[in-house]
Amino acid sequence: MKKLLLCLIIAMLFTVITACGGDEEASSDSDAVSVWVHTSKETPEGKAMQTIIDRFNKKYDGEYSAAIEFIPRSGSGGGYEDKINAALTTNTLPDILTLDGPNTAAYADAGMIAPIDEYLTNKDDLLPSIIEQGTYEGKMYAVGYSESGVGIFYNKKMLKEAGVDLATLSTIDNPWDWNQFMELNQTLVDTFDKPAIDMGFDDQSEWLMYAFSPFLWSQGGSIVSEDGTSASGVFNDENAVKAFTFIQNMVKKGYATITPVEKGFHTGEYPLKFGGSWTITELEEYPDIEYGIMPYPTSPDTGELVSPSGSWQYAMSATTDKKEAAGKLIDFLVSTESLTEITLANSVLPAAYSVIEEVQDKVSPELNFLIEQNSKSAHARPVLPAYPQVSRVFQQTVSDATYYKENSDIQKLLDNKVEQINKALSK
Amino acid sequence: MNTNKRENIAAYSFLTPAFVLLGLFLIIPSILAIYYAFTDYYLLTPDKRQFIGIGNFIEIFKDPIFLQSLKNIIIFVVFVIPIQVGTALGLALLINKQRKGNMLFKVAYFSPVVLSLVVISVLWLYLLNPSEGLINTILVNIGLDPQPFLSSPDQAMLTIVLVSAWQGAGYQMLIFLAGLQNIPSSVYEAGKIDGVNKWQNFFHITLPLLKPTSILIMITTLISAFKLIIQPMVMTQGGPMNSTITPVYYIYQTGFSDRLIGYSSAMTVVFGIVIGIITLIQHKATKEDETQ
């Protein structure tokens, strides 16, 4: 009896200890370059990555090899990043990892990832927004393997019903400014007597930074000073006031609602919507909706078209002892062939000019529109180590501005937010 | 003597797994949190951690969002305790009497407790949707204005209070029920002989005899109310205009999104002390009550 008891206790302790140990070293025992990615093996993106790695192993058989590990992240980004953070403390980072665009500066600043300029043979081919997103303090630390963008989706039938001539709509070469865009909204609100556009104000997350910062840039404004040390006189200047007044007016005049109906555009509730390549995929299930895409509205002062961009990237860990092999692999991962494969599999926007040429005949006209807009007007989000805080303040500023009764004084709102950004930058 | 020793060894062996787990996941992390609170620990540079004294603590008391979160949680607690405990007591009284179908009601009232808080929050998100939600549809149909429950800075926290009270009341109901069934029927019989009415019965017999149960419920509800995070995280993301950000949610954001482990640990310590003081006050109140 006693022996049984002892066995039981030992078994329990053993379980506890092994449960904490985990199965970390499964794939890093060989000379293979270890790669961690944030997607799941079953997604089209994951499958394409596996194919690319397999091709690498075949091509460099006997010379280099690579092993990929899929660590799916949860909706809000947890899971994968938790694993990265844990690996950092225990010094068990892989040789290559994926990271979201806005993380570049934080990872580079912390010395987690190494500069990769010397390994990239096709840097000139990459879109400027990809280079901007991956560059910190003059060096390229990460390279995006796809792009993203947002356009104004419009319901052709509803616009015709409101008497709008579709031939006169905004185009990439001749984009509408905010005033022209608001006129269209006014016409639609007058016709249908309800909000005209779903701008995603209910999504209080990175979306608000991603989709709304281009208005500020189009106006010529910025979030922080060029050296990234302060927001004073930048985020509360005249340009910022104008951009946020536009955002506020969209809600104040009843064009956009802060509580849109879910899938409102897909079901014909709203004639307009801010959407990206993922919206095109979603709309495949709603064949009744005939839609087109317009470019982002521009500031009336500059007329400069600026659109959202950014996506996940590859980077090399600074602690890797296989720099050469890892560099070779990163270059292989962003070669035209690999990028084309992942772009087509995932229905996303290409990250390089050569890939645009490869895919443009193979994708829908709608996706081609976003590709064209992206190649001409994409603007990366700021590359700052304190990005998470700065982004959250920006998100809250957008959200606060939509409460136009409480925040009718945009200047005051921005002055207040500048203080919060400065505090984050000083930490 | 020998058997005694052996029994001791057996006892300790049984305790070991619990101690190991508690140590690993509660005691060691707590001690580390207190230590980190005095450092500038940034999640991505664990090696460059430096001792910075009480710097973090000074920052905290100048942090408008942390102060806002404290204000929010106090509003939450002040509203949720009476509503949740009152509802629980009401429900317990309702199902205390022997009636047909009591079991069904017991299960119905208790079922939200078993469901995951995330599920509950998402469910209410749909019910409270301003344009298509069931609740606003009902309001409109009976001729009232639709309410911006979660998108109004004035209503969002109160909405979360009601959802939380609805979710949690079933648990306290069960404890109240146990308390009610512990009241000897002889007391009620004595009351009957003296000719008390229903209200006197409740206020002069049931309520005083429920006091120990009530105190237990108050303490547990209070502590769990202070830990509010999931409902605002899922339903409002702390908005609108920071009206539903809570200390635990803010600690989570600063620690894991902003990667400021040192700063968020300091907030944890401050918040822990606040809860500790409140619990102590309650504990003292309980003691006094026992000596009466």
From TrEMBL, chain A:
InterPro entries associated with the record: Bact_solute-bd_prot1, SBP
The record's Pfam families line, in alphabetical order, gives: SBP_bac_1 (PF01547)
Q: Which domain of life is it from?
A: Bacteria
Q: Which UniProt keywords apply?
A: Cell membrane, Lipoprotein, Membrane, Palmitate, Signal
So which residues are the signal peptide here? 1-19
- CDD domains (UniProt xref): PBP2_TMBP_like
This protein is called Carbohydrate ABC transporter substrate-binding protein (CUT1 family)
**Native source organism of the sequence:** Paraliobacillus ryukyuensis
Q: Organism classification, top ranks? A: Bacteria, Bacillati, Bacillota, Bacilli, Bacillales
From TrEMBL, chain B:
Alphabetized Gene3D superfamilies for the sequence: MetI-like
What domain of life is recorded for the organism? Bacteria
Assigned keywords, A-Z: Cell membrane, Membrane, Transmembrane, Transmembrane helix, Transport
Q: Where does this protein reside within or beyond the cell?
A: Cell membrane
- UniProt topology in membrane: Multi-pass membrane protein
Q: Name one Pfam family in it.
A: BPD_transp_1
Could you tell me which InterPro entries the record lists for this protein?
ABC_transporter_permease, MetI-like, MetI-like_sf
Any GO CC annotation of this UniProt entry: plasma membrane
- Transmembrane parts of this sequence: 12-38, 73-95, 107-127, 156-180, 260-281
PROSITE patterns this protein is in? ABC_TM1
Q: Which residue intervals define the domain ABC transmembrane type-1 in the entry?
A: 70-282
Which GO terms of type biological process are on file? Answer: transmembrane transport
Family recorded in the similarity comment: Belongs to the binding-protein-dependent transport system permease family.
Q: Which PANTHER family match?
A: ABC TRANSPORTER PERMEASE PROTEIN, INNER MEMBRANE ABC TRANSPORTER PERMEASE PROTEIN YCJO
Q: What is this protein called?
A: Carbohydrate ABC transporter membrane protein 1 (CUT1 family)
Source species: Paraliobacillus ryukyuensis
